[in-house]
Every structure is written in structure tokens, then in C-alpha cells.
Amino acid sequence: MDFRLDILVEYIPFFLKGTLLTIGLSLVGILIGTVLGLIIGLGKMTRNKLISFICNCYIVFFRGTPLFVQILLIHFGVVPMLIGHTNGIVASIIALSLIAGAYIAEIFRAGIQSIDKGQMEAARSLGMNHVQSMKDVILPQAFKRMIPPLGNEFIVLIKESSLAAIVATPELMYYGRALASQYYRVWEPYLTAALIYLVLTTSLSYLLNRLERRLATE
Amino acid sequence: MDFRLDILVEYIPFFLKGTLLTIGLSLVGILIGTVLGLIIGLGKMTRNKLISFICNCYIVFFRGTPLFVQILLIHFGVVPMLIGHTNGIVASIIALSLIAGAYIAEIFRAGIQSIDKGQMEAARSLGMNHVQSMKDVILPQAFKRMIPPLGNEFIVLIKESSLAAIVATPELMYYGRALASQYYRVWEPYLTAALIYLVLTTSLSYLLNRLERRLATE
Amino acid sequence: MIEVKNLKKTFGSNEVLKDINALISPKEVVVVIGPSGSGKSTFLRCLNLLESITAGHVSIEGVDITDKKTDINKVRTEVGMVFQQFNLFPHKTVIENIILAPMRIRKLSAEKARERGLELLRKVGLKEKADAYPDSLSGGQKQRVAIARALAMEPKIMLFDEPTSALDPEMVGEVLEVMKQLALEGMTMVVVTHEMGFAREVGDRVLFMDGGYIVEENIPKELFENPQQDRTKSFLSKVL
Amino acid sequence: MIEVKNLKKTFGSNEVLKDINALISPKEVVVVIGPSGSGKSTFLRCLNLLESITAGHVSIEGVDITDKKTDINKVRTEVGMVFQQFNLFPHKTVIENIILAPMRIRKLSAEKARERGLELLRKVGLKEKADAYPDSLSGGQKQRVAIARALAMEPKIMLFDEPTSALDPEMVGEVLEVMKQLALEGMTMVVVTHEMGFAREVGDRVLFMDGGYIVEENIPKELFENPQQDRTKSFLSKVL
Amino acid sequence: GSSGTNAEADGTSGEKKKLKIATEANYAPFVFLDKGEITGFDVDFMNAVAVEAGYEIELVNVGWDPLFVEVKDKLSDLGICAITINDEREQTYDFSVPYYLSTNEILVPEGSDIKSAADLKGKVVAVLGGTTGQEAVEGILGKNHKDIKKFDNNNLAILELLSGGADAVVADNAVVQEYAKNNPDKKLSIIKDEEGFEKEFYGLMFPKGSELKADFDVAVTKILENGTYEKIYEEWFGAEPDVATILAEQK
Ligand SMILES: Nc1ncnc2c1ncn2[C@@H]1O[C@H](COP(=O)(O)OP(=O)(O)OP(=O)(O)O)[C@@H](O)[C@H]1O
Ligand SMILES: Nc1ncnc2c1ncn2[C@@H]1O[C@H](COP(=O)(O)OP(=O)(O)OP(=O)(O)O)[C@@H](O)[C@H]1O
Ligand SMILES: [Mg+2]
Ligand SMILES: [Mg+2]
């Protein structure tokens, strides 16, 4: 297989720009998604049937439909309603945040439920109310357990952000496709993109492993 | 928003065909992926450094790169080597199986590691060797715990199979795109496809929940 | 004072407490014994509403805690509880475990709370462990911290649910010692335990539970040496 | 017969067994006591190589198990082990738990294995539970099944690691009873336990371990009533 | 690796082998699926050319990215899919003589101040990646200019315009008309600017060094000259083709 380095060299600045946006999108996505996931996760756990039902629908919808369709819906349906016109970056961030929120809600719920029941009972038996117990006793412990799955979600988000290219958000995959369609060559751009994704995801999971080990020994 | 039902009606048989193939692809993918995941998962856990390293690379690669690129690689790199010419369905099945294998390897490893160490010790202390202990004691228990995450992986696979459309595998999304480009309309095909995916994934997760509850009370 | 009248508790279709009546006076130390599953923990947990009560009444210091209008968090500050599994907060140091509730509920300042916390740690013999994390403590030390934590809210009553049964044998003594001290100081205590020596030495009264009822009760010496009921006899024959 | 010579075991940089020497004769019942973390479990687990041995020699019935050429699976069939946490196989019925190893290793037929399994269950008083799943048993019943399972391989030696400390008090007796019976029948036994009554009644010898050494050993009466070492004295003062 | 094409494998049956032709059926009215069948202008044209050249052909919908690998790796004998000939692609592939003159049109909202191709400067333009539209706009704004949004689907490009994310869409006039036909109620104006855009041509795409190119060049020219082309063109586009310009470009 011939492999044309020259066209890759030509695209280096674009790949760089794209990679930065890829990182930015996933980073913002995981941050907003975490806040959202917290709200949705708590919402699903409340005794209020209606709130719990709505939160559950949210989770079911975002986990049950392809991201591709979600991005289109948000890009052409939601963002114009919000800011009057489409904007690929805004749409990608919203879509990634919303889907991350759905997964993080479950991570969050699992994290809370993984804390021994005795912790809540001990806090309540001291006279602390439910909110105080959550805040001072349950959540700090749950958050620590959530770090590894949150990291995984970040990795997933990095890969999924590649779908942002379909609404012309100029991230890594967008420039990969631009190169592909300029030269009608597939391997150079896509293998390069794959390699960059691989570097991003493996270095992230390396960092995660170290963090996890640090947390475990603490 | 005007919504042309007539063109949807016209495409009903294609959506049906596509949905069947989507189900078929993910089903075959999860089955082969399970076998593969078992092998890779065991491989990663062996003491043999080389095998363990190779299995780990496999997992890192498939979990760290976008499925989109994997499908292309397999469609053009692997399938022609195997059967002499390209074939979208074969490539999709291989790609979905390989990625499922990478995730299932981890599910499998987690399942085995979740079994109390005392089980292996009890079996070994009776004089059973490692293989016997695995087969008779550890694996049956691990499999039961693997059912819920395997079900989740199945759901993920259903959604990811939508990417098979890029190598023109005539599954659900393929016909969705066909409809979109024949009539230059976006919402009718994509919302319909999203709905079908949602029905597939939610009914599957409903079944899973029931199964999980049955297993828990057993 | 604790008054329990016709207390019933069911989990689903499982009636765990069938008809419990008891009167526990101030400064009394009541030991609860009985076979596994007889409802001892459930009984104890009903006393501070960690389990909702199905029927009957429980009043603590004259306050009916089954009344919907009662502020249960306030009641719980009066009733300390010590669990078999310690349930210390692993993300907080020993002293932080102790001062958390006083600061949150009694609104004590950090210094004041810490000062009183250290005093309690001294009492349970763990002053030097104030800034350690629970994971670095032995079982006996953990349980003593748990007792100090419960005492920090200055409860009028202390409930103990098998406080020594998760401990290595050589640590049982140090925990019982702290409990004995507490009893001597006049704390009202309800203790579920299998430590018959403690019951004999410290208990004012022993309740024997079986099948959701209090089958027999008496002063320790009488109950252990002269059980009236067959079930009590058969249980004691296995345990003593 | 078990011969232990200069046994050392380290976990990383933690030297858990420092220099253990012991000789256990056929039909002898040896009880091992000592504070938590002193290495009792590790010692026991070295006897059937559940822990790899760092240095020294252990021979079982004349076979040096530290020799690389020894088939450890064969040795293990001669040495039964009973764990604190029972470790029954939860996906198998009681009888399946018992017959698994004999069928796999001794290649017994299912009928033959079942027949002998039922015999063992009768011995531990659980014949009627043959087709129950472990989860439906009480702790004492589980531990008796675990003993029957170990016996099914017809071992020459039985190791017990705190077989009663996960049990509710009223179930301790039934398990000790089975162990006593076994001792009477002439089984060679090494028992880590805190049940001093059992040690006194059944033990031929007591080893007191501390800090990775066997600090003192003697016949039970002597060791309990007349400990020579300070560490032994201090330990016994807490436990007895 | 595969040596030669699979078409060669079945070549035993007759004089001329059956050719495998790769396409992506996602670009109405050139190539698209009509209820599962591949149809379109390119399909009819390809069939006519094949008959003229004396080849049996099989048109396979392989997908867009796969199309290039198929042709480059000789898994298919050639590709047709409204593929624009340009220098960069000629480094990797051989193209037939042009068979279609793509007239790009600008699609703008009604009342837009864009009146010509030159007005696109400073505006955000949505295009379909890899098409003549992209080439044309990049000719004006510059390669990979940040104001060019490339979509991999014309629908999305036009939807972007309708949703306010772009000021204009530049696409082949056939595409623009097909869109307008299916979405009559959208308030869009079409601007033609023959001078403003460079002329772009479609060609058949062959692997580098393909021996088929010679046969097909002749056949394409023949079809253009003998009136068959005009018939097919009018059938699909309802207009007369500018055969003269295409033939001139072929020289
Ligand atoms: N949260 C619960 N849900 C359902 N059943 C419960 C629950 N808690 C306890 N039970 C049941 O209630 C019965 C009594 O339990 P309880 O814990 O009060 O017994 P106990 O006397 O404390 O026994 P032990 O000595 O084993 O602690 C048991 O049959 C138990 O299965
Ligand atoms: N797998 C292991 N890895 C590292 N350290 C271990 C391991 N197993 C035991 N240890 C350490 O070895 C020491 C002795 O442990 P061991 O379990 O033998 O003590 P023990 O006398 O049985 O105590 P206990 O009465 O608590 O069961 C302890 O300090 C323990 O932390
Ligand atoms: Mg209890
Ligand atoms: Mg031990």
C-alpha cells in the first residue's frame, strides 16, 4: 500500500487544530455532562414519581438512540431555537454533554448505591437529615468511586466527538474527511486520525490508571 | 415542520429489511464477540507476558479508536484477504464482533475478578487444578454476573451497527440514508430510524431487567 | 425513659416483630439476647426509627416517636447508636468523624467541637489517634471511635447492636471496658450482645427474644441460672 | 505427619512468617492461637501451598511440598482445608459441592460419589439438606457442609482456619461438635481458633504465635494456666 | 493482497469480462436508491457507455469512502458517482475524459445580498465535501477556509442554510433543482453565475494505469457525439446539455 506522507504533511496544521477542538469538545462535554448527570441521577432517585419518570425517559432516550441522530436533532432543532442560527460547535457540545449526562447519571447512581447502607444509617442515627448525610457522608465517598467510570466516559466522549464532523464541526475527523475528499484517498487521513484518537485515549487511560492507584492507596 | 408520511410508507418494507439486518448484525456480533472476549479476556489474564501483552494491545486498539475507522480497515484490509473480495455484511459482522470482543474481554475479566477469591482457594484446596477450578467453580458464577453487562454491550452494538451503513451494508441506517438522499429530506428517515433504534434498545433492556431480577432471586 | 407498646414490624409479608412491650428506665442497662433472626436488631432500630414502625407506639423521654409530627432528627440526637460494622466515615479522620454531627446540628464551632471531641477520645483511650483515618485503626479502636462519635451528640440513651461481634477476640475486652464505664456513669443503654459475661456484670435486666416476641426477661443472674421458658433454656444451653 | 523447618514467608517487604519450626504427629490435634496479624492463617495456608513458601521446608507425610517436582494437587487431596468464610460453591447444591472434587479427581461415578457424600452429610447431621443450595443454610450448617466437602477427598490431615468465628454464637457448638468427633476418630488436625474451650478439651497441643514466630507451645492446660512468655500472658489475659 | 480484480475471476465466461463498477448511491439525481434500486443519471449514462464499449457491467453500491479504496486497490474496475476531476485526485487515479459539465449554483435565502459568486467572500458557505461545489467555493475563498462548512450530505448542507448556520450553499444545479422539487415550500433563491465559478467536470475514475481507460474514453466521446447522451440528459434534467463544452474539454 502506497502511503502519501506529503499530503499528510500538508494537513498537519489542520490535524492539530482538529485535535485541539476534539479535546476541547470532549472536555467541555464531560464537565457539563457531569453536572447534568448529577442532576438527572439525583432526579431519578427521588421519591417524586413524575421527576423520576422524566429523568428516566431522558436516560432511556439518550442511551437508546444513535448519537448521529441526536447530533442532527440538536444541531438543526435545538440550537437554532436557542441562539437563532446553527452552530456546529455549540451543537456538538450540547449533544456530547447531553449524552454524557445520561451515562453519568447512571454512573452517579451506581456510585451512590455502591456506598454501604451503614454509612447513611450512621449519619442519620447521629441526627443528620437526609440532605446533610448525602452532602457530608455519601457524596464525597461516591465521587471518589465515580472517578474511574467518569474517566472512561471521557474516553468514550473523545471517540464519539468524531461524529461532530457530520454537522461540519471542524474537529479531527472533519479534517480527516476533508483530506479524504480532496485527494480521494482514505487510508492517509483515517489511519492518521485513528492514531491520534488512540494516542489521546491511551494517554488518558494511563493517567486514569495512575489516578486510580493513587486513590486506592490513599 | 411538514412531515411526509407518504415517503415513509413507501419505505416501510426497506425499514423492515434494514431493521432485521440490524438485529442480525448485532446478534451475530454479540455471539462471536462473546467467544472472542472469552479468549482475549483469558489471554490477558495469563501469566505469559507476550500473550497478555498482545491481548492488551487488542483491547487498547479497539477501545481506543473510532468504530468508523475500524470498519473501514476491516472492510478493505481484512475481508478481501479472507474471502478475496469486499463484502459489507461480512465486514460489519467482523468489525462488530471484534469491537464487542474487546469490550467483552473486559466484562469477562471483571466478572471473574468479582468472584470471591475464596472460591478459587476452596477449589484448589480440594486438589482441583487451575483449569478444573475455573471450569467448574469460577466460570459458572462469573457468567451469571456477566449477563447484565453483556446485555448492555448488545444494546451498544445495536446502535453502533448503524455505522455499517458507511460500507453500504443495507441495515436500518442505510435505508434511512437512502430515503434521505432520494427525496432530499432529513427528518422523516432519521427520526423514524431513531424511533426504531429506541424500540429495539428499550425492549432489550426491559428483557434484560427481567432476566436480571430472575437471576437475582434464584 | 423508653416505652414500647405493642410494637409490630413487618418486612413485606414477613412479620419480624410481633408484639413487643418494654419499659426501660433512665440509667438502666438492658441487654437483649436471642437467636439469630429473632428480631433483636430490628427492635433496636425501631427505637430510633431507622426502621419505620408498622404498628404500636414507641416513646423516648415522653415523646411519641411514631407520631408524624415528631421531629425524628431531634429524637435521634438524644439516642446514640453503635453498629456491629462500626460504620465510621472512611473519608474523614477520627476527630472529623466525631465533630461532624455536633458542628452540623448543634452548630458548634470547629474549635469547641474539636476540644470536646478530644475529651471523648481521651475517654475511650484514643486521644493520640485523633488525626488518623479509620482504615489505619484496629477493629477495637474503630468501635471505640464509633462510641465516642455517638457520645459527641450527648445522647440520653445509647443503643448497641452487637458492638463486639465483628472484633478479634483480644479486642473485645477494650470495647466492653468502655461500655462498662459508660454504664457506671449512668447512661441508659440497650445492648444486643452475645457477651454473657458483660450481661452478667453490667446488665440490670436481660430480655430474651425469639420469633418476634420478648419471650422472657429477668435480672441476669436469674435468667441465666434459672430460665423459665423452654426456648430460653435451649438457647442458653448452646451459648453458655 | 507434618514437618515444618525454618519456614519463612514474606509478602513484598512484609515478613509475615519469620522462622517457623513444627512437627505434627499423626492423629495429633494442634490448636494455633495468637493475636490478629500474627501469621496464623498464613502458616496454615503454607501447609497446603495456598501461599507460596519464601524459604524453608514443609513436608507432608514425608513428601517435601516445597520441592518443585512435587505434584501439589496430589498433596492437597491429602490435606483438607476449612475456611472461616465457608467458601461453599453457591451455584451448586450441598451434595454437588461435596461430590465435585471426588468426581473430577478421584474419577468416582456420580452414584458412588453421591452415596459417599450422603454418608458424610449424615455424619455432620445434614443428610436432609443434600439438595438444598448453600444460600438457604444457616452459618453453622454451611460450615458443616464445608467440613463434609473437605472430608470427601479422604484427606489424612485437616486444616481449620477459625471455622467458628463467622458464626452466630448458638451455631458455634454444632460445628465444634463435628470437629470433636473428627478428632476422636483419629484425624490429624491443625486448628486456628479462639475457642479456648475446644482447645482445652480436644487439643493435644497449643501453639501460641506472635509476630511471625511460634512463641510458646505446650499442652493446653499448661499453656493456659501457666504461660511462660510475657506475650502469651498478656494475650491470654485479654482473651480468657 | 488481491491480484487483479474479482471481475477477472469470472472472465472465463466470455470474450469481454464483466466489470465491477463501484458507486455510492446517495447523490440524487446522479446516483441514488429508488426503493432499493440504484438509479440516476450516472447509472443510465454508465450503462450506455458500457454497451458502447462492449462491456458487461455490474454496478455496486459500496459507500463513499469505500469507493476510493475499491478503485485504488483494484477491487472494482472503475468508479462512477458524479466524481469531479481535479489535479490532486489525478495523482492517485486515472480519469476518463469528462462526461459531464457541472454548473454550480448558489442557493441563498430569499432577499439575501449575495448576487454572484464573488459576493461569497466573507460569507459562510455550506457545501458537500468532495464535490464540484466545494472545489468552486475553495477556488474563491481558499482551501479549507474556516468559512467553508463541508458536509457529507447535501441535505445537511441545505438544512444548515435554512437553519441560519450558513449564508449560502453552492452545489451542482441538478442537486439544487432536485432539492427544490422535493421541498417546494422553502423560501430559497437560486443564483446562477456561470462566469464566477471555474468549470468543473465529472469523469469515470480508474485505478492508476488501468487499461480500460482507453476503451472507455472512446466510448464516452462516442455517446456524447451520437446523441445518446443528450437523450439521457434530457430525461433526467429536462434540459439540453452543453455537449460542445464537454467535448472541447476532452481535447
Ligand atoms: N431490611 C429488611 N428487609 C427484609 N427483611 C429483613 C430486613 N431486616 C431484617 N429482616 C428480617 O427480619 C428478621 C429479623 O432480623 P434481625 O436482623 O432483626 O434479627 P437479629 O435478631 O438481629 O439477628 P442477628 O443475630 O442475626 O443479627 C430476619 O428474618 C431478617 O431476615
Ligand atoms: N495476600 C497478602 N498480601 C499481603 N499481605 C498479607 C497477605 N495475607 C496476609 N498478609 C499480611 O500478613 C500478616 C499476617 O496475616 P495472617 O492473615 O496470617 O494473620 P492471622 O494471624 O491469621 O490474623 P487474623 O487473626 O486476623 O486472621 C498481616 O500483617 C497481613 O496484613
Ligand atoms: Mg442483628
Ligand atoms: Mg487469619
UniProtKB/TrEMBL annotation, chains A, B:
It is a multi-pass membrane protein. The chain crosses the membrane at residues 20-43, 50-83, 89-108, 154-175, 187-208. GO terms for molecular function: transmembrane transporter activity. One of its GO terms (cellular component) is ATP-binding cassette (ABC) transporter complex. Pfam families: BPD_transp_1. CDD domains: TM_PBP2 (cd06261). SUPFAM superfamilies: MetI-like. Belongs to the binding-protein-dependent transport system permease family. HisMQ subfamily. One of its GO terms (biological process) is amino acid transport. InterPro entries: AA_ABC_transptr_permease_3TM (IPR010065), ArtM/GltK/GlnP/TcyL/YhdX-like (IPR043429), MetI-like (IPR000515), MetI-like_sf (IPR035906). It is found in: Cell membrane. Coiled coil: none annotated. Residues 19-208 form the ABC transmembrane type-1 domain. Keywords: Amino-acid transport, Cell membrane, Membrane, Transmembrane, Transmembrane helix, Transport. The keyword Ribosomal protein does not apply. This is Amino acid ABC transporter permease.
TrEMBL record, chains C, D:
It holds the Pfam family ABC_tran. Keywords: ATP-binding, Nucleotide-binding, Transport. The keyword Electron transport does not apply. One of its GO terms (molecular function) is ATP hydrolysis activity. Residues 2-236 form the ABC transporter domain. This is Amino acid ABC transporter ATP-binding protein. It comes from the Bacteria. PANTHER family: AMINO ACID IMPORT ATP-BINDING PROTEIN, ARGININE TRANSPORT ATP-BINDING PROTEIN ARTM. SUPFAM superfamilies: P-loop containing nucleoside triphosphate hydrolases. Transmembrane segments: none annotated.
